[in-house]
Amino acid sequence: MFSSRLARLNRGVATPTGRIAQLIWRSLSRSLTLSSQRRVPDLSSFVTRTNTCGELRSSHLGQEVTVCGWIQYRRQNIFLVLRDFQGLVQVVIPQDELAASVKKILCDAPVESVVRVSGTVISRPPGQENPKMPTGEIEIKVKTAELLNSCKKLPFEIKDFVKKTEALRLQYRYLDLRSSQMQHNLRLRSQMVMRMREFLCHRHGFVDVETPTLFKRTPGGAKEFVIPSREPGKFYSLPQSPQQFKQLLMVGGLDRYFQVARCYRDEGSRPDRQPEFTQVDIEMSFVDQTGIQSLVEGLLQYAWPKDKGPLGVPFPSVTFAEALASYGTDKPDTRFGMEIVDVSDVFRNTEVRFLQDALSKPQGAVKAIRVPEGAKYLKRKDIESIRKFAADHCDQEVLPVALKASQDWNTPVAKLVMEEQGRGLARHLEAQEEDVVLLTAGEHRRACSLLGKLRLECADLLEARGVALRDPNLFSFLWVVDFPLFLPKEEHPGELESAHHPFTAPHPSDIHLLHTEPEKVRSQHYDLVLNGHEIGGGSIRIHDAQLQRYILETLLKEDVTLLSHLLQALDSGAPPHGGIALGLDRLMCIVTGAPSIRDVIAFPKSFRGHDLMGNAPDVLPPEDLKPYHIQVSWPTDSEAEKNSLTHPHRPES
Amino acid sequence: MFSSRLARLNRGVATPTGRIAQLIWRSLSRSLTLSSQRRVPDLSSFVTRTNTCGELRSSHLGQEVTVCGWIQYRRQNIFLVLRDFQGLVQVVIPQDELAASVKKILCDAPVESVVRVSGTVISRPPGQENPKMPTGEIEIKVKTAELLNSCKKLPFEIKDFVKKTEALRLQYRYLDLRSSQMQHNLRLRSQMVMRMREFLCHRHGFVDVETPTLFKRTPGGAKEFVIPSREPGKFYSLPQSPQQFKQLLMVGGLDRYFQVARCYRDEGSRPDRQPEFTQVDIEMSFVDQTGIQSLVEGLLQYAWPKDKGPLGVPFPSVTFAEALASYGTDKPDTRFGMEIVDVSDVFRNTEVRFLQDALSKPQGAVKAIRVPEGAKYLKRKDIESIRKFAADHCDQEVLPVALKASQDWNTPVAKLVMEEQGRGLARHLEAQEEDVVLLTAGEHRRACSLLGKLRLECADLLEARGVALRDPNLFSFLWVVDFPLFLPKEEHPGELESAHHPFTAPHPSDIHLLHTEPEKVRSQHYDLVLNGHEIGGGSIRIHDAQLQRYILETLLKEDVTLLSHLLQALDSGAPPHGGIALGLDRLMCIVTGAPSIRDVIAFPKSFRGHDLMGNAPDVLPPEDLKPYHIQVSWPTDSEAEKNSLTHPHRPES
């Protein structure tokens, strides 16, 4: 009878943590093994345990072991499941009189208390193995136990199936970190960064150089945090990247630099951005664009987790102009089709007014995307929401056209288009009867941009209807190249600003345009895009002081005194150089499939820039400000009100 | 005739950079090879060269090579010496008519211009090899050449023998980095850190976790830079270390954490300190003091540069009390003797007043150090400077006594001591006739502290006289343990403050004293000392919330609301844990034998916290402060004057 009770209990063991957690724990132990191909790390060196909970297997049978862990769960004072970073193990609580004190310790300790137990690794009774648990063939028969720390209070249970708001997770981050998902994400991050370091240092002789974060403001560098110094009126700034320093390192002959660099950007409240973030920052001398691209491809290939499959290189490449024309964005998600097609020729003689108008203007065009089987999946309300999205977000008109004549939501205009241009449209778009076409018209860039957004909207809608469009296991890398060097300033379109930063070298084929039509000059900037997210960007830099000065002073009207050291450096034997910075947080977010970059950062800030655990930023006693010669200018009531309107105090997360 | 001219020129090639530079370049190429035992890194991958200048050897003879480098030096338009990060190589400028354009490029380019040359590696003519130059057996016969960038201005020559002030070096750091010494230091730093990472990640399963630098102020955390946020009156602080985060990671079950962490400390102007600095930060769960010590010994042994000889482990260990008694400091330089000896017993019946007085007081003692052969090396003016040092720095009296009766500078008191206690003193100190004894008396701690300082002063004096006392090739590691947990506050000696930080666990043997005599409690803190410098410190932490609260609230009278998150965390199943932080800048400074930590940092601040290259900190336009709701409180004239007295505007460096 006792053994059947045991069996029942055993079956139950896997349930509380749930299947997903089991899978994550399993992949965790797999990736831990992968991390050091040469030698398995000793995870119990220097400490008072012989083994981790999660590593015990049948191969340990008969061994006397000591493990430390958290009480995940206890069943009827007979079993205890202990957890550590590597997984779960079942512990059998002794029931005999002589071990009463051990039993008392293990039965009295609240869940999540920390204990150390010693005992023998034994087989589970036949039929009671748990194949879902990596340690499911064994259990520990306890001899001694010690309560290392009792858990007094828990705002939520440490079980993956327990849903928590993100605000609660951030407030109690030290508890949230115990989840299998956070353990997995942080460990994988550490391993991938280590692999990158190996590739850069060992394979290619890069030098890891730390650059300052207390520096001076960059020209045009809004969004830089300021730090008052002890000298009245003088401030350091926290740079957004080590850009100047890495270029100066090249001038200094360092040849190959990299740094896993902390960067800072004060953007106020923005979802899925962090005021401090991490870049894998790289710079090389005597390199061209192809060189940097090959380096990055090799780097990612080398660091890529084995269980995500091999990465094919070289990555495909499109120009900025092509990306805009086909995807309406400079960061296309190339996991699926639905590219934008120019159908202007089909509509040369259209009677539809808004198409006619568009085509009569310079740069005017009619553009379309084809939503495959849209007639089957998109409902009338979806079509309405697409129209509304276009109007709200882009202030533009979109015309959804179902190729199926019987489609009830086709508007009279859509019906007219189908009658007059239906065949041409179907031919141009290779459309089938069940497809839906979204048409828009207007200036090339605006029309493409709208359809680029609608392409993603439609992908969301189709996926919500169960169509598998974007494979979550697919990693579609893409280079985007040949960006414009300058853009018209948003607020003063007559003036130019750098499309990226003012140190970007112009495209060699366009140098001659710099003095005549600078707005037409392409740059040697390149972006690396993964699944529709920009995960890196870099360029070949200007190494000629005269050219740099011309661009800064004459074209951009910047105050060059802030950059006199850089201009001097370029005049002192600066080698040709270029580099890239990869956004590590975003990359890890995509690799782990996490919903937010906050899930791959140990202690992230909320979207309002708050540390919800420690309550930062916080008020300071006035005496703490005195050494820095600053005082708070409290906003007047009306200012404060205006402020709260622009940054409404939404609840966090 | 031409060949004899060649010979003369060849002989000269090594001279301009000098012998020391040659040695450094040689050790540089050696250590580069050492860095990756598994596989030699490819230093010319992805770029437009086939080889580095410094790597060419006889094994490359006959090869067509392309190298890029800086013109180090040109001799009579026949030879060019090119430099890159790996060393120097000699290039033969073609003299025939057909190659006139190549000759023009190479002869016209100013020194420190950047060129790319292609040609054949050939042997130097017999007798013209330069054994001092790693590439001295070969030269490159140039076919094509390209000027990549012309060097327009140089504030100083890039030659190691050219002496520059440090201010000039810092202002033109990008040029200073071209020196063999800076190249060596930064590359060795990168390599040692990489070795540490390998040891921690691959050998022992540590996880590299990045922790925030924008956080909130720590209780008692003066010296923290503040960063205004966009919320009026709310500030982030830059923490001095990731202390709280690493403890919270342990509570979060991360088990083994490390980070090469940027830390910040605003100490105003202090020589050889930096406002931002780097720690190798480590924390482990379920560990005791011995565990951390073994880990760090293994870590340093693994990362230690091969050419500095193997490190013996375990490192010796002394208690804080022993260190104070024998060396008068908690960071003894154990490369040499001259330990402090308590000679109170010798003087029980002394007639010398100041010794008598001291002995009559509680804790009073007479202490001595023996300066070996001091009579031979110390001149009268040295003895005067020793007295003056004691008076100026410690406000204490020191009595120098020459054992040799004939020593002319012995004072009447010294003579009296020699007559009465000479034999006892000689016996206690094992002193020889040529030795000098420095005597002082007073409270134990003060007397030891004075002699500790004089021990180092005397070492400087003896070394200035040519006595080899501290071997620059010796690395004397030492653990100092059993520190007091609390110290009396300097300004309010009735109150206690943490000797290190409030999270340090008390020594298990002294726990019972916490409620009765807290000032007597020793801690589980440990310092790692190298050649008289503290290069690391750590402790076992408090994991019990109740104990932590008692220490913070009752003993230290701190505001616990600032730490409520930490106290809550300790109550939520915190494992026992401990760790250490190694000061990477100081460690690298000692390993490289550099005169200052600024020589192992790519872009250091001056001792006044200035970036002399970029001119930071700097004034900001008022509109940059507006989003942060702060304004500058300009000091009044009298305040400014007072300020300039406390921080006189000494010229930089």
Quick one: which chains have the greatest interface? A-B, 143 and 143 residues
C-alpha Rg of chain A, in Å? 30 Å
**Strand segment count of chain A:** 23
Report the CATH C-level class of the largest domain in chain A.
Alpha Beta
User: Roughly how much helix do the residues of chain A carry, as a percent range?
Assistant: 25-40%
Quick one: biggest sheet of chain A?
A: 8 strands, mixed
What fraction of residues of chain A sit in β-strands?
A: 15-25%
Task: Count up the domains of chain A.
Answer: 3
Second CATH tier, the architecture of the largest domain in chain A: 2-Layer Sandwich
> Number of DSSP helices of chain A?
19
Q: How would you sum up the global shape of chain A?
A: globular
Quaternary state of the chains? homodimer
What integer is the average pLDDT of chain A?
Answer: 91
Looking at the structure, the CATH topology of the largest domain in chain A is BirA Bifunctional Protein, domain 2
Please state the structural category of chain A: alpha+beta
Show unreliable segments of chain A. 1-18, 29-37, 647-651
Question: Spatial order of the strands in the main sheet of chain A?
Answer: 6-9-10-21-20-19-16-11
CATH superfamily caption of the largest domain in chain A: Bira Bifunctional Protein, Domain 2
C-alpha termini separation of chain A: 51 Å
Catalytic activity (chains A, B): tRNA(Asp) + L-aspartate + ATP = L-aspartyl-tRNA(Asp) + AMP + diphosphate
Subunit structure (chains A, B): Homodimer.
Subcellular location (chains A, B): Mitochondrion matrix; Mitochondrion membrane
Keywords (chains A, B): Aminoacyl-tRNA synthetase, ATP-binding, Ligase, Membrane, Mitochondrion, Nucleotide-binding, Phosphoprotein, Protein biosynthesis, Transit peptide
